[in-house]
Write a structure and sequence with these properties.
Strand order of the largest sheet: 1-2
Structural class: mainly alpha
Shape: globular
Strand content: 5-15%
Order of helices and strands: EHHHHHE
Largest sheet: 2 strands, antiparallel
Helix content: 40-55%
Length: 72
């Protein structure tokens, strides 16, 4: 399973979706879906913009957690 830490990062930094959208050009819809963990995918372009804006790595935004089925 992939854990999405986008909302935690925004909360910790007190950032608003509207500001990020205006500063990066990423749509509010995309950011809102990421925030509420409703996204099923993300483009490399959006990922690159968010990492640059938030000054973080991909691993800070998303982390992999093994499912019970794959834990052996």
């Amino acid at each position: 399973m992939i854990n999405n830490n986008f909302s935690a990062i925004l909360g910790k930094r007190l950032l608003k979706i509207t500001k990020i959208a205006n500063d990066t050009g990423v749509s509010r819809t995309t950011l809102t879906n990421l925030y509420y963990k409703k996204s099923t995918g993300i483009s490399f372009d959006v990922l690159e913009k968010l990492c640059a804006y938030l000054n973080c790595d991909v691993g800070d935004l998303f982390e992999h957690e093994a499912d019970d089925k794959t834990k052996d």
